[in-house]
Design goal:
Distance between the termini: 45 Å
Number of strands: 0
Helix content: 55-70%
Radius of gyration: 17 Å
Mean pLDDT: 92
Low-confidence stretches: none
Order of helices and strands: HHHHHH
Shape: globular
């Protein structure tokens, strides 16, 4: 369990350092890269996968009379989040999801949220935390969710700096979820 906690939090910390570096200069920071490449995709996906591996390393199956409810709520939230994340990934494409600049996407899930992949992934982490039901799972999940929020803020700055049409999209579309105005 301690190994999973260290692994999950370590991957979040690595993401945090990369985002801090990126926040200092939206044009040249490592995320999102000015020009995507397979190396960027590898470290971005690699760190994200390590967060999930850390969570799995803390796995304890819920038992007891309320286990069915824990599973139902956790899986429901997790699957809904995964569906939203998958929809956003399909709209943006693998390269856009992996750091290549594909412009400002406004269709599909991006017509409901400026960051549907992050919202969906955060819901997935919340579902994991509910199912795990212990402090290491909650710590990793909440830290990962905060990291996703920071990534969304950093991406907002990069998109604003790189694309003039982002200002109009930002003015009408909610940051996380909701109806466009």
């Amino acid at each position: 369990m301690i190994f999973g906690l260290i692994l999950g939090l370590g991957a979040c910390a690595a993401w945090g350092l990369l985002l801090w570096w990126s926040e200092r200069d939206a044009m040249t920071g490592p995320w999102p890269p000015e020009q995507g490449n397979w190396g960027t995709a590898a470290w971005a996906w690699g760190l994200t996968i390590l967060i999930y591996v850390g969570l799995f390393q803390t796995w304890e199956v819920p038992t007891g009379p309320w286990a069915w409810l824990i599973w139902t709520i956790g899986l429901g939230i997790g699957f809904a989040g995964s569906a939203l994340q998958t929809w956003g990934t399909a709209n943006l494409g693998f390269k856009g999801t992996s750091g290549w600049d594909v412009g400002v996407e406004t269709r599909g899930a991006y017509a409901r949220s400026r960051h549907p992949q992050y919202v969906g992934q955060a819901a997935g982490f919340l579902g994991f935390a509910i199912i795990l039901g212990h402090w290491p799972g909650w710590i990793i999940s909440l830290t990962a969710m905060a990291t996703l929020y920071a990534a969304a803020i950093v991406e907002e700055a990069a998109l604003a700096a790189r694309h003039a049409d982002h200002a109009a999209y930002r003015a009408r579309m909610p940051f996380l979820l909701g109806r466009s105005t």
